[in-house]
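worker-03 picked up job from queue 'complexes'. Input manifest follows; two sequence lines, order preserved.
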Amino acid sequence: MDKEILRLENLTIGYEAKKPILTDITFCLVEGEAVGVAGPNGIGKTTLFKTILGVTSPLQGEIIFKERKIKTKTDTSWARSQIGYVSQGRGRGKLPLIVEEMVLLGRWGTYFSGFQRPQKSDRRAAKEAMEIMGITKLRKRDCRELSGGEYQRAVIAQALARDASLLLLDEPGTFLDFESRQEFTAQLKELRKSLPISILIVSHHREELDNLVDRVLILGD
Amino acid sequence: MLGVVVVTANLTTIRFALMHLALLGGAVALAFKLPILAGAFGGIIVASFILGPWAERLKVDTGMMSAYLMTGSLGVAFILFYRAGVPAMEVFSLFTGGLLLLSPHDLWILLVIGILIIFLFWAFYYEIELFLYDKETAKALGVPIKRLQTGLLFLTGLAIGVVMRVVGALMVDAIILIPALAALTLARGLKEGLILTSIFGLIASVGGFFLSMGADLPVGASITVSAVALLAVVSIIKGRFNLRLKRD
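worker-03 finished. Artifact:
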């Protein structure tokens, strides 16, 4: 039997107990599986990801990551250290940041933080993640100058740099044109073949889901 | 260095509100014959909490809160000046500052705050970098965003309080914002941005000081003019360089 990586048990999510956004979600993701998350705008897809990451607490129910119930802050930090997250609508911002530094930031919290500084092993992991995503040549480029497709590859490399076993991708193709989106989906497919990584992806693009995922979780009332 | 935070984290409106509340604090100090710096710091502490945790708790838009604070504090400050009969020259000094008016006590405070800012940037460099890069990602990785933002607001306020004594409330941007804008035009990373901001800030301050001595001008205004000139030079150099790259 395939090993479970994430299980949601009767999960109710939202920001206020009186106004839950989604109720009673039960769902399971196994190792190496890719599942699409679909549903109308505002239904709570991003909130679901934030709840899995521990940014927002569940109102009810349980989150089980790699057979461990996520209840305390320690549990949350432990789970978070193995999850790569690509947020919706990533702006490039105004901060000048070269790609290798941006990828290295993916190691923060798990391998270094506060007074600690990144070690050689962190730089090596960032380098490997860039190699996997084929962006080694771009490592000295300012991330604000990358094309949409290049930037998304850098973002995935950032998630891979923390040795994530689960990727949460929140509409990664939003700012990409059709061709770049197809290229990005193909790259994610390749990634699935080469790494035992599980993926939960929110997308409004049917072709992205059809080409990449094993099944689709539809959220609704 | 805090200018980099203000520019990249879009805190310009909040910075303006902080500046006005520091001014109000200074006005209260003038009216009650207290040290101006202490008054400015008082205003800043209140402003940091109003714009940070309280705005969050009361669910008030920070932009709206800033608008209230900016206009309200100026109005109250002028009422205070009028009622307390503060001499016009003292009011003028609050708006234009004066490097030569700094007391040894002020210089010590300036030094301590400078060291504190450098230390905190060193200690929480990657947390600050993540915060400035993408707040959503930073939150997902576990960076305590709210605490960090309040801390940075408070530090910005402290810096504004100190700078207000040097160049005055109206020209705070000359030291806080303009060197950062010039640095971010050239920098390729946060570290470079912070170092260049410090260098440009130093050049503008020292250049302005000598300009003021040489041409017998007010120090604060001279520092401001130097900073603006520096930004113009950096922008022209960057523009020409980009143009040449495009031609090549």
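worker-03 released lock.
The domain at 2-168 of chain B is CATH 1.10.3470.10 (ABC transporter involved in vitamin B12 uptake, BtuC).
The longest helix of chain B spans residues 219-247.
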